[in-house]
Amino acid sequence: MSDSEPAAPRRILGIPASPGVVVGRAFVVDRRRVTVPRWHVPADGVDAEIARFRLALVAARAQLEGIKSRLASDGSDHSGILEAHLMMLGDDMLIVQVEQAIRDECVNAEWALRRTVEKIKEVFDATSDDYFRERRSDVDFVGERVLRQLMGDPTELPRPGDMHGPLVLVAHELSPADTAALARSNVAAFVTEVGTGTSHTAIMARALTMPAVVGAPDALRTIASGDLLVVDGLRGVVLRNPTDGECADATDRGERYGAFVLSLRSNTARPACTRDGHAVKLRANIELPGEAAVAIDHGADGIGLYRTEFLYIDRREPPSEEEQFETFKRIVATMAPRIVTLRTFDLGGDKFSTAFRIPKEMNPALGVRAVRLALRERDVFRAQLRAMLRASCFGEVRIMVPMVTAVGELRAARAEFELAKRELAARGESWVDVPFGIMIETPSAVTMADLLAREADFFSIGTNDLVQYTLAIDRGNVNVAHLASTFDPSILRAIAAVCRAARERGIPCAVCGAMAADLLSLPVLLGLGVFELSVEPTAVPEVKEALRRIDVSEARELASQLLDMPTAAEIEARVRARWEPVLTSLLLGGEAGQYTETGRFVLPEYRPSA
Amino acid sequence: MDQAESTIEVLNERGLHARPVTRIAQTASRFKCEVTLTRDGQTANAKSVMGMLLLVCPKGCAVTVRAQGDGAQMAVDAVCKLFTDRFGEGI
Hints:
The structure holds two protein chains of two kinds.
Chain A: E1 11-13, E2 15-18, E3 21-29, H1 46-71, H2 77-89, H3 92-105, H4 109-126, H5 130-134, H6 136-150, E4 167-171, H7 176-182, E5 187-192, H8 200-207, E6 212-214, H9 219-222, E7 228-232, E8 237-240, H10 244-265, E9 281-286, H11 291-297, E10 302-307, H12 321-335, E11 339-343, H13 371-376, H14 378-391, E12 396-401, H15 407-427, E13 436-440, H16 443-447, H17 449-455, E14 459-461, H18 463-471, H19 489-505, E15 509-511, H20 522-528, E16 532-535, H21 540-547, H22 552-562, H23 568-587, E17 594-595, E18 601-602
Helix pairs in contact in A: 1-2, 1-3, 1-6, 2-6, 3-4, 4-6, 12-14, 14-15, 17-19, 20-22
Chain B: E1 3-9, H1 18-29, E2 34-39, E3 42-45, H2 49-53, E4 62-68, H3 72-84
Antiparallel strand pairs in B: 1-4, 2-3, 2-4
Helix pairs in contact in B: 1-3
C-alpha cells in the first residue's frame, strides 16, 4: 500500500499527548467527509465519464472481493455484510441513477455518485424504524469505496478483527467516547491530526496509559492502514514503515519507559513534598469511578477533581439522584479518609450530552455550559447536589462548581445547594455539610477573585479553560493551539492574583488543569504559591518525583522574576534554562539523562536510527 | 406470459436487512423473469438490494412477491422459501 505513495514522509511530527512507545500496525479511520469535486462534463465527454464510473465500480468490486476471500476462512458475519455490499455495487438502482445524473446534468461521476447516495440515504432517514435508519451507513460505505476509486485513493478499510497484534488507530479526531472504547480493543496507541496535549482525548489516553501523538498534520494522507508504525508518545514522533533496527530500538524504549513508570510507582507511598520540605497536596483528576483505585495505587492524596459529567453522556435522561449517590458513595468510600472533590456537571461546550436539550449554538464554548446549564436545569442540578451531600456521610467530600464567571452565579448555585440540604432534611435523609467551592477558569473569575473568595470555600484553577478563555484560543484548533502556552505572562499573573486572593481570605487554592502535570510548570506554580495540585492518576508518581527536586525558596525567587517578563517565549526559556536539567530525565520518561561525577547534567542525545 | 404471485409475512427477527435482502437478490437473479416485492403499495425490484432495503420491511409486515416471465412460479416459490426459512437466521 505504501508503495503507491513513495513521496510520503516517513517521519511525522506531532504533539506528545500520552507517554510511552509502541510498535504496531496502522488502523486508519477516516470519518471526515471526503470533499467531492464537481465539474461540468461536455456532452461529448459523457460516455467517457460513464466509462470511468464503471471502471471504478469494477475496481471497487475487485477490492471487496479481495477482502471477502481473505475473510472467507472465518465464515463469520463479516462476509455476509461484504456480500451485501458487493450486491449493492452491482445494483441497478445505484448504477442507473448515477449514469442518468452524469448524462442529464452533465456532471462528473464523483458528484453524480455523491448526489445519488445522498438521495438514497434521505429515504432511509425518513423511515421510522431505527434499525433501517442505521442501514444508511452501508450505502455510505459502498459509496465511499467507489468514490475513493474515482478519486484515486485506493485506501483499504480493514476491520479491527481483520488485523492481529497491537494496532495504532489513526484518525482525524477522536471523541472522548471513542477513546474510552479503545480500552476494550487491541488498539495500543493512537495518532490524530488535530488535538493538543490538553484535549480531552489526550487526557483519556493518559488515563488509559496508552501512548498517543496528536496534532500530527496529514496523518491520514500519509499513513495507510496496515503500515507498520512506531508511535513515540514521549517525543511526539510517528515513524512510518520503520526499519528492523528502529523497531527494536522502539520496543526497547517502550520497555524502558514501562520499567521507569514501575520504578516511580514503587515510591508511591512517599509523601509529596519539595526538596526543601514543603508539603504539597497532590491529588488526582478522575472521570470514571474505577479510577479511584488507580489514583490510590499511584499514590494520590485524594481526588482533586471528579468529572461527574461522564455520568450524563450517551444517555437520553439525566442520571437519577439514586444512581449518582451510589456512584459518588463508591468513590468517596474507596478514597476515605482522603478527600474527594466532586465537581458538578460541566456539560455544554465541547462536552455534549444527549441528556439535555442544549440549544444548537454557534459558539458553544461561550454558550450554555457548566454552571449556566445547571442554573437552567435546577432540578437536575439539585438532584446531583443531594446525591453529593448524601455521599458525604461516607468520607471527606467537597463540592466544586465549574465555570463561574460572577459572584451572582456563585450565589445562585449556593442557593440551590442550601435548598438541596433542606430537601434532604425534609426527606429525613442523612447528609453532611461540606465545603462549597468554585473553579476559576475565566478571566472574569480571576478579576473578581478577591470578592469570590469571600463567598467560596475554596478555589481550584482549571488551567485548560483559563488558557482558552484568557488567550482566546480554541485548544482543539491546530492552527492556533501552539499559541496556547501556560507560560504566557497573562496566565502567570492570573494564577498569582487568584493565589493572593485565596491567601488573604484563608481559603485553599488548587490547580487541577493539565498545567499541574506539566513538570516544567511545577516550579512556576510552587513559586506563585500553589501547594495543591490535581493531576491524572498516572501522572502522580512523576509529579511527586519532580516535586522532590524543586526548592520552593528558589521557585519563589524565579516566579517573582517571571512575573516581570513580557512574553511566553522568554518565560519558558528562563524556566527551561533553570529547571530542564533537573526535570528532563522525567520529561523523557526516565531515559538516559544523568548527572556526571562533576555534578553536570548530561542530556540524552536523541539519535533516530534513520 | 407466466405470472405468479404470493403474499408472505416477514418472520425473521430483524426484518429484511442487508443479509436477507442479499439472499433474495441472489435468488431472484437466477431467474430470467422480472421479480418484485411490494409492501404497502411500494414496489421494489427483487434483484436490487438497495431497492428492497428502501422498502423497509421489519418483522411482521406482509410482502407480496410477484414474478412475470419465464419461470415465474419457480421464482416466487424460491423467494418465498427464503422467507419461511427465516433467511437461515434460526428462530
